[in-house]
Amino acid sequence: MAVSRSRILKSQEPEKSEAILRNALDWFPGEPGDGLAFANDELCNQNNSLAYLARSEQVRSIDDEEALFLKAAERSRSLRLAEIGGPLPEPLERNVLLADISGLVTLLQAASKGGRDGWGAPPPRGMTFLFSPILRIDGEGMRQSLAIGMPAFRNYYFEGPVSEQLRTPNVRELVAAIYERWAQEPLMALVRSCDTARGIYESGYRFDEPPPKRPFVFRGRTDSFAHVPFLSRLLAAVGRELAAGITLDEMRARWGLMGAEGLAQAQQKSASEKLNALRRAEDMAISGTYD
User: Fold this and answer.
1) What is the reported pTM?
2) Rounded to 5 degrees, what are φ and ψ at 177?
3) Which of 169, 232, 250, 254 has the most crowded Cβ, counting Cβ within 10 A?
4) Is 223 left (phi over 0), alpha (psi -120 to 50) or beta?
């Protein structure tokens, strides 16, 4: 009830919308734990997880968003599986990961051509259509959704320097290492990628209703594509971080591939500052579009 009321008031009365969620979380903070899991049902409010999730969409800082998203995801296994977009990722050999990263980036970039056409009504002024690089398993195959975003969002994956960087050996090795680190316990990887997944390609600047989808076929080095949704989410997040100017060492620290020593903490802080700067620029550009 509180989450629904908050969403209704979000655009017209944002302060009241935020107050509703803060009160709901004060009244019932819930506890971390899987609780009951319902297949593909992220809408089940386990341990008040949806209130935390909705609250994470209201804050300005990526650090605050990630902290609230963590509280939502650690309270609901259903939400974690919904964010993964498929089953729990399976461990893979490094050579298989590297080959699939290369093939997936190449195919997604090629498939993005024409993503702005053929959808009836044009996107809002100053916006563009783009197919999300984050894939989901739907039935026996995979699906790719259509997003609406700023034209600059294409520079996070499909165009410009980042589109080339995603294919370089160093970046492929980094993404493979992130996958290996978090595949079996993906919670923190979901947290680190939540702003990109939800804010840019999924529930951000797109449709009031669920977006159109199309089938997506990817034939990797294995017979299974169970790992592809999680891998595609990591690639999308790393692409945006590259666009923010985050260095590979800063990414290693941010994604938990380094220890907790002072240097790693300093690199995490630098990465956070760069991502927050990018998000402020995105928000300003979008506000300007609708002024």
Assistant:
1) 0.88
2) -65, -40
3) 232
4) alpha
Give the Cβ contact number of residue 69 at 10 Å.
27
Residue with token string 């590979």: 248
C-beta atoms surrounding 94 within 10 Å? 12
H helix or E strand, kind and range, residue 131: strand 128-131
CA distance 119 to 112: 14
Q: How far apart are CA 234 and CA 161, in angstroms?
A: 18
The 3-state DSSP class for residue 221 equals coil
Quick count: other Cβ atoms within 10 Å of Cβ 37?
15
Task: Give strand pairing partners of 129.
Answer: 148
Tokens representing residue 4 in the block: 């629904």
CA distance 202 to 83: 10
In this structure, how many other beta carbons lie within 10 angstroms of the beta carbon of residue 180?
A: 16
C-alpha span between 213 and 132 (Å, rounded): 10
pLDDT tens per residue, the chain (291 residues)? 566 666 655 656 666 766 766 666 666 666 776 544 444 444 566 678 888 888 888 888 999 999 999 999 998 888 898 899 999 998 999 999 999 999 999 999 998 875 445 555 677 778 888 889 999 998 889 999 888 788 899 999 999 999 999 999 999 999 999 999 999 999 999 999 999 998 888 754 444 566 778 899 999 898 899 999 999 999 999 999 999 999 999 999 999 998 667 778 899 999 999 999 999 999 888 776 554
Q: Mutual orientation of helices 169-182 and 187-194 as an angle, nearest 10°?
A: 130
